[in-house]
Structure formats: structure tokens, C-alpha cells
């Protein structure tokens, strides 16, 4: 079996790019059988990562010491997401450093299984910029709390608030997503609702300019409430909700407790942005399910913290709020 001409040309281009940019590695994403000996000859001297779902395809590749095989979960994901998953896995397993430059070759256009060419596309990926967008996979732990595009937008908003603060000052806040009616019934306004009077389009957090406006509002004391559909409904909310049965780590105060508590008592997901550290902790069902560090770019997602898992004792609700 020899390689078709388009694949040969792409591999040559990848090898040349690795030398001339320079780039750190080549990532080959394929689900089609391919002449690996030929690939090896063409990419001699390049660090090669091969990502595939099919274990039969990658089994023999593991014997080659110069190649790193990344197993992908067998899910019907778009190519972009599979590439993201492969790169994220390589970074979290310390196979690649954030900031690396990668030449990726993949099948981005032809989707037929019997496509004449195993690969048809080439991209140059600068991992520093790219990692921030690799959130979809990790957000799956939140199940169907909200559509993925809404969750991504809220993550972007929360991490930007944590990283940037406002006017040089760190700010903390809570972004509550979903179950708006129940959240409102358990909370009260500390101030007038700044979203009142604005159209849905002007409150849609999936839009960058709306997120920029919301960052201003996040300076105000209290939590923000966003619907499952991504429309911001309220700000300046003092969240009620009882704190018993929730788990937050030692050292956290009333903000994180309030976020955990509201996620326990409603089906919302609460994103607590810490004023002191900028980190974002995501609570669901009263438990912390995700933690994002406020690194300057890039950040790497951690589903669970690998540190001291000691938990703070549950505190009673400090608000005693009635329905407002
Ligand atoms: N129930 C609540 N609803 C909304 N915001 C709250 C609530 N309780 C506390 N906060 C916010 O949290 C702030 C106090 O944060 P505190 O330092 O006690 O918490 P923390 O969990 O350690 O958070 P941080 O890491 O941001 O300091 C309050 O000024 C208020 O803005």
C-alpha cells in the first residue's frame, strides 16, 4: 500500500513547516488505514502524535518509540472537537507543553469512510491560544444543565472576570445558570436589576459585546442569573438557599458557600469567581464539579482538584431569605 499523492503532498508540507516555522510536533488525526511505514519515512525527524478512535488502527503504532498514540473516545464528534480533545489530552498528560506549535493533518472535508485520501487538510495550531477554546469536552460533566454554547460563553465570561478584574481591581462574583424561577424565588435583589428594560438580544451572553457589558455589571455586589437559553435575567442578587449538605473546601467563605447552596437547592449550575484568587469553581448539586485556574493564557481544565480534599463543614444559610 502506498500513500495517495495528496497525502504525500500534505505530509511533505507538514515536515517542511516543522522545520521552517519551527513547530514542535505533527499531529495526525485519522480513522483510515494508511501506509505507516511511508508516513514514518516522510516524517523522519519530526515528533509525531497519532490520534484515533480505532484501537485496531493504533495498536501497532505503539511499538514505534518515536510516535505517541493518543486514544480518542469513540464518540461521533466533529473533527475540530476531536482535534481539541487530542491536543488537550496530550497537554494534560505532559506529552506537549502549552505554548507548543503543532502542525495538524486530518480529514476535515471528506467524511466518507472510503474516501480516496486519508487526509485532506492541514492546520498550524499555536497551543497557547488554542487551549482556551477546549472546553466542550470538559463541560460534558455538567450534562444537559444548559446547551454547550451557553456554558462555553459563561465559562469565557467567568474566566475573563477572574483574570482581568475591572479597572485594575480583582473582582469576584457568582454566575448562576438555569432554573431561573426557582433561583429567584430563593433570593432577593440587593439593588435594582440592571438588566431590566433591555431586549433579549441585548442580554444574550453568547455575544461578545454583551459579555463585555456584563463584566461591568459584575463589579456590583451580588450574583448574576442567566437563563438556560443564555439570556441574562438578573444581577445584584443575594442568593438564598440553605447551606446544609453542600461541600466546599476549607478556606472558602460565603461566596462559594452561596454558589454551592443554590446549586444544591435548584437545578442551576453556579460559577463562583473568587475575588482573592481569580479561580472559577463550578458547582452543581451542591458539589464542586469543575475548577479552572486563572492562568494567563492558556488554562488547562481540571475535572477535579488533585490537592487536599479536606472539606469544610456545612454552614447554615446565612441569609435567611424569603422569596422576594
Ligand atoms: N448569598 C450570597 N449571594 C450573592 N453573593 C454573596 C452571597 N454571600 C456572599 N456573597 C458575596 O461574597 C462576598 C464575600 O465573599 P467571601 O470572601 O466571604 O467569600 P469567598 O467564598 O472566600 O470568596 P472570595 O474567594 O471571592 O473571597 C460578599 O461581599 C458578596 O459579594
From TrEMBL:
Keywords, in A-Z order: ATP-binding, Nucleotide-binding, Nucleotidyltransferase, Transferase
InterPro entries registered for this protein in UniProt: DAC_DacZ (IPR014499), DacZ_P (IPR048544), DisA (IPR050338), DNA_integrity_DisA_N_sf (IPR036888), DNA_integrity_scan_DisA_N (IPR003390)
Signal peptide: none
Catalytic reactions of this protein: 2 ATP = 3',3'-c-di-AMP + 2 diphosphate
GO molecular function, one term: ATP binding
Domain DAC: 135-294
Name under which the protein is recorded: DAC domain-containing protein
Lineage, highest ranks first: Bacteria, Pseudomonadati, Planctomycetota, Planctomycetia, Gemmatales
Amino acid at each position: 500500500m502506498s500513500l495517495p499523492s495528496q497525502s504525500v503532498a500534505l505530509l511533505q508540507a507538514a515536515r517542511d513547516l516543522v522545520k521552517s516555522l519551527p513547530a514542535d510536533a505533527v499531529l495526525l488525526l485519522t480513522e483510515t488505514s494508511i501506509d505507516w511505514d511511508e508516513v514514518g519515512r516522510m516524517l523522519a525527524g519530526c515528533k509525531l502524535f497519532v490520534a484515533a478512535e480505532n484501537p485496531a488502527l493504533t495498536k501497532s503504532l505503539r511499538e514505534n518509540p518515536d510516535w505517541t498514540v493518543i486514544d480518542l473516545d469513540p464518540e461521533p464528534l466533529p473533527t475540530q472537537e476531536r482535534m481539541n480533545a487530542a491536543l488537550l489530552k496530550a497537554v494534560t498528560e505532559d506529552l506537549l507543553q502549552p505554548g507548543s506549535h503543532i502542525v495538524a493533518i486530518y480529514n476535515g472535508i471528506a467524511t466518507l469512510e472510503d474516501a480516496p485520501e486519508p487526509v485532506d487538510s492541514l492546520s498550524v495550531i499555536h497551543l497557547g491560544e488554542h487551549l482556551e477554546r477546549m472546553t466542550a469536552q470538559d463541560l460534558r460533566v455538567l450534562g444537559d444543565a444548559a446547551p454547550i454554547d451557553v456554558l462555553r460563553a459563561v465559562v469565557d465570561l467567568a474566566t475573563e472576570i477572574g483574570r482581568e478584574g475591572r479597572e485594575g481591581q480583582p473582582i469576584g462574583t457568582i454566575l448562576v445558570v438555569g432554573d431561573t424561577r426557582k433561583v429567584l424565588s430563593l433570593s432577593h435583589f440587593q439593588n435594582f436589576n440592571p438588566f431590566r428594560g433591555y431586549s433579549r438580544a441585548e442580554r444574550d451572553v453568547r455575544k461578545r459585546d454583551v459579555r463585555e457589558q456584563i463584566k461591568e455589571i459584575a463589579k456590583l455586589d451580588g450574583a448574576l442569573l442567566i437563563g438556560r437559553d443564555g439570556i441574562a435575567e438578573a444581577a445584584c442578587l443575594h442568593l438564598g438557599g440553605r447551606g446544609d449538605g453542600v461541600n466546599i473546601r476549607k478556606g472558602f467563605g460565603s461566596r462559594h458557600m452561596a454558589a454551592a447552596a443554590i446549586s444544591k437547592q435548584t437545578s442551576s449550575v453556579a460559577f463562583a469567581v473568587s475575588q482573592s484568587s481569580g479561580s472559577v469553581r463550578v458547582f452543581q448539586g451542591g458539589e464542586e464539579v469543575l475548577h479552572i485556574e486563572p492562568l494567563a493564557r492558556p488554562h488547562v481544565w481540571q475535572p477535579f482538584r488533585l490537592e487536599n480534599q479536606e472539606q469544610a463543614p456545612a454552614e447554615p444559610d446565612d441569609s435567611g431569605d424569603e422569596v422576594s
